[in-house]
Amino acid sequence: MAFELPALPYEKDALAPHISAETLEFHHGKHHKTYVDKLNGLVPNTEYEGKSLEDIIKSAPAGPVFNNAAQVWNHTFYWHCLSPNGGGEPTGALADAIQAKWGSFAQFQAEFNDKAVNNFGSSWTWLVKNAQGELEIVNTSNAGTPMTNGQTAILTVDLWEHAYYIDYRNVRPNYLNGFWALVNWDFAAQNFAA
């Protein structure tokens, strides 16, 4: 069974002015689709045929199959981290956990931004829950994903240039400002509760 490009959970123009429809045309319609297409070309007649994305990511060695499967999963997760009705601050158990770990939402946001701005090259910055159930901010490079380290992804920001070059050129801090205006805290809270 072939993998399919999942639809965005909102219209392409819904995240404007922070992320433009043009960016989503390229990022979702071309980059994300290319990962799906490449994965579909790599999996048939291999041990990965019939496996879920998660199973492929957890079992494939570094290389083309892992890279494309992880990028399909990472991007699908990232789209859900954004919402036209997002932004603000989390509430409930996630807010309490952030407060307990960093002392304030502002301090958490500052540390997340610092990690993201200084994450070299094509990369991702994640809020994760580790095996002990504690929150951490972690960076991954290329197609890296927390699930290979036994961590549960709560929230991510895509730091590949195709995520922000059209709207922000190469000014990553400005892109992060737009990201915070769109964060889907309901999705993050569901991941934290899982």
From TrEMBL:
Gene3D superfamilies: Fe,Mn superoxide dismutase (SOD) domain (1.10.287.990), Iron/manganese superoxide dismutase, C-terminal domain (3.55.40.20). It is an enzyme of class 1 (oxidoreductase). Its EC number is 1.15.1.1. The keyword Membrane does not apply. One of its GO terms (cellular component) is cytoplasm. The keyword Lipid biosynthesis does not apply. One of its GO terms (molecular function) is transition metal ion binding. Destroys radicals which are normally produced within the cells and which are toxic to biological systems. Belongs to the iron/manganese superoxide dismutase family. This is Superoxide dismutase. It comes from Allopseudospirillum japonicum.
